[in-house]
Structures are given as structure tokens and as C-alpha cells.
Amino acid sequence: MKKIVCVAIVGKGNNPLFIQDFSSSITDENKLKLHYIVHCSLDIIEDKPGVPTSKKLPSEMYLGLLYPTEDYKVYGYLTNTKIKFIIVVLDNSDIKDSDLKIFFKRLQLLFINTTSNPFYKPNSKIESKKFLQDVTNLVPSL
């Protein structure tokens, strides 16, 4: 059973670059709920204590648990370029912070490799099949 239900990457202007659901039992209603959860997490990231608002950001920032819902837990990661990585996991999943940090770093590396492609239009939706496949292969590692 997969622990990760959704992976999202959001640009610095809070525009969705990549959102993918990984649950086998996703209905349209659940998909909408996951998108809503990701959207709500953006407000929490901005309001989270310790998130620098100045131009000086650390090179990486694991934000930890953003908030739990009745079915899920939402975790976040912020890069120095203000790209936000958000994952939604099942509430009954027991995941260590060290494992989450490794997952986010691997996800960031996939993102960097994809957006470094000269054919990628900066700050646009990621539609690469290779990126989707790489993320799909990464999800079971957590």
C-alpha cells in the first residue's frame, strides 16, 4: 500500500507546476479534495513560523508537517527559489522526518533535471512523461 497519496510542486507565484495523485482509489471527488488540500497548504507555508520572508533564504528548507486532516497528513519543503514541494500522505502512515527529507531532496533533484532542459519553458506546468515516470518510481521509496 502506497503511503503517498499526492505529490505537488508549486511555483514561486503559487502557480501549480505539477500535481499528481497516486492513490489507486481516487475518485473525482477525492481528487478535488487533494487539490484543495494542496491549495490550503500554500497559506500555511506562508504563515509558518521560521519561513524567511526576506531575500535571504537557506539553500533548502524542510518545513515538516504542515497540517493533518482527518484522512491525510501534509508535508512541505521550500527551496531557495521559493518553489514549494508538497506531499500528502495517509494519516496512518508512520514516516520519519529523515526519510521525508531524503524524499524531498530526491524530488528536488528530479525537478532540477527536468527544468534544466532547454525545451522547458520556465515557470510553466511540467508535462514531461519522463518526469512523471521518475516521480512515480520515487513514490514507493518512502
Automatic annotation (TrEMBL):
<dbReference type="GO" id="GO:0005737">
    <property type="term" value="C:cytoplasm"/>
</dbReference>
<dbReference type="InterPro" id="IPR006722">
    <property type="entry name" value="Sedlin"/>
</dbReference>
<dbReference type="InterPro" id="IPR044760">
    <property type="entry name" value="TRAPPC2L"/>
</dbReference>
<dbReference type="GO" id="GO:0005634">
    <property type="term" value="C:nucleus"/>
</dbReference>
<dbReference type="GO" id="GO:0006888">
    <property type="term" value="P:endoplasmic reticulum to Golgi vesicle-mediated transport"/>
</dbReference>
<dbReference type="InterPro" id="IPR011012">
    <property type="entry name" value="Longin-like_dom_sf"/>
</dbReference>
<dbReference type="Pfam" id="PF04628">
    <property type="entry name" value="Sedlin_N"/>
</dbReference>
<dbReference type="GO" id="GO:0030008">
    <property type="term" value="C:TRAPP complex"/>
</dbReference>
<protein>
    <recommendedName>
        <fullName>Trafficking protein particle complex subunit 2-like protein</fullName>
    </recommendedName>
</protein>
<comment type="similarity">
    <text>Belongs to the TRAPP small subunits family. Sedlin subfamily.</text>
</comment>
